[in-house]
Specification:
This protein starts with 9 loop residues before the first helix and ends with a helix. It has 407 residues and is mainly α. Helix content is 78%, strand content 0%. Helix 1 runs parallel beside helix 8 (141-155), helix 2 (31-49) packs parallel to helix 9 (159-172) and helix 5 (85-104) packs antiparallel against helix 6. It has one domain (10-406): Growth Hormone, Chain: A.
Length: 407
């Protein structure tokens, strides 16, 4: 819950916004190391170094979702610490960094690598509602999308460099992967120091006696509940296919047979460069245009990217699909991070975001396991077609939800 409104003069508000942007930009510059490192290199290590099972592979993308599911509980207990939001974020980064260091030591034991890395990624996933709390209190609504898009752009600015370096490193010797996780740990420690310097308020205790009580918002606010349903369908269509990208590029069953460097280019470098270019544009669209129109456009690009990637029969086709993924992710990240500020009553943004992240975690936890399980019975292309149909359904649902919102 956000603390009661504090009246600031215009100059004080501008100073807070300026300091928030400065430290958030520095923090975000290293976020690409952490996100890309876990989503791509961890899955590559489990697949080609440990020769992990389908369950082990699915656990990598599911790790972030475990953190999202637990956000309502965390946000219920965080206020009892009586600490600034940015201080809590800083502690989370410190814990995640230590866990990534432990994962780096698991070069001969899959359970150490996956156990420590999964918990570290889950801890980081709990940052989003806390960051929304900071953004909603420190940025005016008219500039919120633009300012956050700057941070998101920087969060992927260094990812192509890291992706190329990591791909080359694993190409020469895949057993050298601990170096990548040591770099990720260092990025966590530095990010924690930056977020600690960001202005923020103390989280106020929730009046609810049950940490899951805020989930009732989903059916009390009909428009919000319908939007959650739309996100559930969209997210499942995307998240059940996206983790299969590396499987598609590495499996002997398909004709791609990509090298580690080519995988890094397709999974990190191309999407990251595209997001760098496109995120600020999506931030402007979020501020200036109807949310449903912007969300629909991003989903249409997402649908095209799924089809282009999984129906490509060459690495060049894969690269084209990766470009589409990067363009869709740029819009998706801005929309996903800020959409509750368009629907939540003033002061309730954190609670609404906690419900959103919980439902996002539920679908994200289940989707990768279903995806890896179903390709035992269907081709990856067949399952990708199913995922694209779900994305198409979510686009169709935006129209009736927008009519309900207008009423």
């Amino acid at each position: 819950m956000i603390s009661p409104a504090i009246q600031n003069t215009d100059s004080e508000a501008e100073d807070i916004a300026r300091r928030t942007l400065r430290w958030d930009m520095i923090r975000s510059s290293l976020a690409g190391f952490i996100d890309a490192g876990w989503r791509t290199f961890a899955l590559l290590v489990v697949t080609r170094y440990f020769d992990g099972s389908s369950f082990a592979k699915a656990l990598v993308p599911a790790a972030f979702m475990v953190g999202l599911i637990t956000t309502p509980i965390a946000l219920f207990y965080y206020p009892r610490l009586r600490m600034r939001t940015s201080s809590i974020c800083s502690i989370n980064y410190l814990c995640a960094g230590c866990l990534f260091l432990v994962a780096a030591t698991g070069s001969d034991k899959l359970w150490i690598f996956l156990g420590a890395g999964t918990i570290g990624a889950a801890v980081l996933a709990q940052q989003m509602p806390l960051l929304v709390h900071i953004y909603s209190t420190n940025y005016a609504s008219a500039i919120r999308g633009k300012r956050v898009s700057y941070a998101i752009t920087l969060s992927v600015a260094l990812a192509p460099i890291f992706g190329w370096f990591g791909g080359q490193l694993l190409e020469r010797d895949i057993s050298a992967f601990p170096i990548l996780f040591q770099i990720m740990a260092g990025a966590c420690f530095f990010s924690g120091a930056c977020i600690y310097m960001t202005p923020s308020r103390i989280l106020q205790p929730s009046p609810k006696s049950n940490p899951m009580a805020h989930l009732s918002i989903a059916w009390k606010d009909k428009v919000f509940g319908c939007m959650l349903g739309m996100w559930m369908i969209l997210g499942f269509g995307n998240l059940t296919t996206m983790p299969l990208q590396i499987e598609y590029m590495t499996s002997n069953e398909y004709s791609i047979q990509a090298t580690n460097t080519q995988i890094a280019i397709a999974a990190i470098v191309i999407p990251s460069i595209t997001r760098i270019i496109a995120t600020s544009i999506w931030g402007h669209l979020f501020d200036a245009f109807n949310f449903f129109l912007v969300r629909g456009l991003a989903s249409c690009i997402q649908l095209a990217a799924i089809v282009a990637f999984f129906f490509a029969d060459s690495i060049l086709g894969i690269y084209f699909g990766a470009f589409g993924y990067g363009l869709a992710l740029a819009g998706g990240n801005v929309n996903w991070s800020l959409w509750v500020t368009k629907f939540a009553p003033v002061g309730q943004e954190t609670n609404y975001m906690a419900v959103h992240t919980f439902t996002a975690g539920m679908r994200g936890l289940v989707a990768p396991f279903i995806g890896f399980y179903m390709i035992q019975f269907f081709s990856i292309q067949g399952w990708a077609l199913f995922g694209s149909l779900l994305v198409g359904l979510s686009i169709c649902l935006l129209y009736p939800i927008s009519r309900l919102a207008r009423r």
